[in-house]
Amino acid sequence: MPKDGSVTSLDGLGKPMWLVLELTYRCPLKCVWCNNPLDYDSYASKELSTEEWKQVLREGRELGALQLGFSGGEPMLRDDLEELVAEAESLGYYTNLITSGVGLTPERLSALKQAGLKQIQLSLQSAQRTLTDQLVGARVHDLKLDTARRIKAAGFPMVLNVPVFRQNIDQVEEILALAEEIGVDYLEFANIQYYNWALLNREELLPSREQIDNAEAAVNRARARLGKRMTIYFVIPDYFETRPKACMNGWGSIHLTIAPDGAALPCQEVRVIEGLEFPTVREHSLQWLWHESPLFMKFRGDEWMKEPCRTCDEKEKDYGGCRCQAFLLTGEASNTDPACAKSPDHHIIESAILGSRKPREHKPLIMRTPGGTTVIPS
Amino acid sequence: MADTTIQPQDKFALNPMFLLRWEKTQDAYVLLYPEGVIKLNASAAEILKRCNGAATVAELVGELQALFNEDDIIVENGIYRFLETSHAKGWISNQP
Known about the structure:
The complex is a heterodimer. By secondary structure, chain A is α/β, with parallel strands linked by helices. Chain A has a domain at 18-240: Aldolase class I (TIM Barrel). Chain A has 14 helices and eleven strands. Chain A has helices at residues 50-62, 81-91, 106-115, 129-136, 141-153, 172-182, 196-200, 202-205, 209-226, 286-291, 294-298, 315-318, 323-330, 346-357, and strands at 18-22, 67-71, 94-99, 119-123, 158-164, 186-191, 231-235, 255-258, 264-265, 365-366, 375-376. In chain A, strands 7-6-5-4-3-2-1-8-9 form a nine-stranded mixed beta sheet. Chain A has a two-stranded antiparallel ribbon with strand order 10-11. A three-stranded antiparallel beta sheet of chain B has the order 5-1-6. Chain B is globular and about 35 Å long. The A-B interface holds A 2-3, 6-10, 13, 15, 17, 64, 66-67, 92, 94, 96, 118-119, 121, 157, 159, 185-186, 228, 231 and B 16-17, 19, 21, 23, 25-26, 30, 32-39, 90.
């Protein structure tokens, strides 16, 4: 998935340069910050077929997509992943696999290399076995580390993605040491964004300003020590900034996500916004979905903006922030993202931070499960 | 080239993480790498295409001076500056 820390030096010239295929929402893990829809299990019977995904790949290239992410859920649960990677390679994409590592067996790793896969992004949640296993609801810590080493041994460039929250943010130095030992090329500390499960668990997951500052200082020391050997991204949570993130580089600007059921989305979270329709590639061409569908036209450009965005001299920089966050926190998707200090709703963010800091009984964390009811003590 | 660390006999190659290719939809060469895309202008692309691990910087300068309709000194300075930047960004490395 494209991140705030990643670099894109060209505007898309109106093309969806970044295409992300969420092949499935199925996943063996139960992460308490998962950004898949809360009703993810209702999509299992609607997943696109191999041939339907191949059609998406062909149409995506015709629209000018260059970077391709295979994501999920856990994309390794699709038996046709290797076939789709080979198809994507033959079409000229730069192929990225975004995985938890579960299911990435030695056999499949070498089949993916054979198919031409360019890069693997592996997630790791902590430097400590018990904490990783607890947070993801499965015994996978050792497997993840083995997988990381096998990915490097197979000659892939690797991004190690670490979602960051209160429970693991103080381990930044241990994780840095681990990444250095494995030989990771890009290490990405991504403070989580608060949608879906992460929003349900926000009070328990939000780190403190002091924790963020300490972590960032550790990252800067490591950058000075490691130079070009490892590129380290540190994505600050927008809750602690006074300006919103330039979400997706603007709605319908360069990012196109296809959900497991074939819905074409401007971002992976957008189904949290009520009152929008989400047409799929089963009914429409990708060309129409990207260029003409009411969904992609809705917040493209800046015509839709209200004050304070409309007359703001920074609107070209952050495009008013995130539409999903505006909807979830203010009830209206066209409002300014409340992460912005200029937003009349900014107090919502401030009180969420204050609320998470108050001395109180800790709530159990809600894990990603079909009923959403499994809980672990935080 | 007093302020450069690049020597005429250096041989540069694109780092294996980077993929350089022509992209029809952008009408340009692009450099692709994990989670990133860089669109190159024509002269940048001509320089990177020649970073094959075999050609020396001096050879590269000679070839491009012949190719570009521009003052030789300007071409040479431009190439050294671009190689410096590319090296600093980790796109290319000096081959033994």
